[in-house]
Design a protein that fits this description.
Helices cover 40% and strands 12% of the residues. By secondary structure, the protein is of the alpha/beta class. Helix 2 runs parallel beside helix 3. The protein is globular. The chain binds zinc ion (ZN).
């Protein structure tokens, strides 16, 4: 049984866009790469584990971000592609535009660390058949974007509506609800991608094994659950071929210490201290290790699951 920690390195302006706010102009604009990444590195060193970091290509125009990617890669972590632009309407664009966004993202990663990514994660957990066609054509080994989680889907739709009700426009979108019927364990995609077939390997993002609920097992919910709640969620994952724990760089940021007090009213996870969130994430991973899971990168999981 394998477990993978993956970290989407969405930089702070992504969160401004989700909440319909102006992007920051101060140092907090780079808090994920300049403050968060080092905390993940030290936590992963303590766990003696390699993880997968999904980078957005355009963030790597900034030299400290490129250095961080090179450092992570040098330490044995996998760097995956999270597109160049991280457009929230990525899946509504043409196949050609998607293919270009994927290729430019890979170019930026290769430029930063010398290796082209083989794994992909779409922005905002939304993907379409055309994306899989582009990934296959560009030689990817796996995708990890499908999130078959009804409670998350409902919460996201409600959040977008509530942001609109307050007169702001979220750049976030929800996709085809049929994604909720996708398998929760690794599978080869068919057409449509939420059915099984013989296409690309999909490593779905973690949901608990309780068939009726499929609660989200991701950074935000685990960190917000506190240490006891995090242990409960990790136990609810049961025994699976792969537990795919998807985190975000912001998960280890602290509103006060990292200059993000301005974002706190909009971003509930910033109401918890960085240390408390780390403690909760660590509790969840400790339960996984006690259950017998081995921590590997998503790339390695993809190989071992073949
Ligand atoms: Zn993202």
């Amino acid at each position: 049984m394998f477990a993978s920690i993956s970290v989407d390195l969405d930089e702070i302006p992504c969160y401004s866009a989700i909440h319909g706010l102006e992007p920051p102009t101060d140092g907090s604009a780079h808090a994920v790469y300049e403050r968060g990444v080092a905390r993940f590195e030290s936590w992963l060193r303590q766990l003696d584990a390699r993880a997968t970091f999904f980078a957005i290509g355009r963030d790597l125009d900034h030299a400290p971000a490129r250095d961080a990617i090179a450092r992570l890669h040098g330490a044995g972590h996998e760097i995956g592609n999270h597109t160049f632009h991280h457009r929230y309407d990525f899946t509504r664009r043409s196949a050609e535009s998607q293919g270009d966004d994927i290729r430019r993202g890979a170019d930026a990663i290769e430029h930063a660390c010398g290796e082209r990514p083989v794994g992909f994660r779409a922005p905002g957990y939304t993907i379409v058949d055309a994306t899989f066609e582009q990934l296959t054509a560009q030689g990817y080994e796996y995708d990890s974007s499908v999130f078959p989680c009804p409670p998350y889907y409902a919460a996201k739709a409600a959040a977008i509506a509530s942001i609109a009700a307050r007169g702001r426009r979220s750049h976030s979108i929800v996709d085809d609800p049929r994604v909720l019927t996708a398998p929760a364990d690794p599978y080869r995609v068919g057409t449509p991608y939420h059915r099984r077939g013989d296409g690309m390997l999909e490593l779905p993002i973690g949901v608990t094994g309780l068939a009726s609920a499929r609660l989200p097992f991701i950074g935000t919910t685990v960190a917000m659950a506190g240490e006891r709640g995090a242990r409960w969620l990790a136990r609810a994952m049961g025994r699976r071929p792969l537990v795919n724990l998807e985190l975000h760089g912001i998960d280890l940021l602290d509103a006060e210490a990292d200059g993000l007090a301005w974002l706190k009213p909009y971003q509930p996870d910033l109401k918890r201290a960085g240390q408390a969130k780390l403690a909760a994430l660590n509790s969840a991973v400790t339960v996984l290790l006690e259950t017998g899971y081995t921590l590997v990168t998503l790339h390695e999981a993809a190989h071992r699951l073949e």
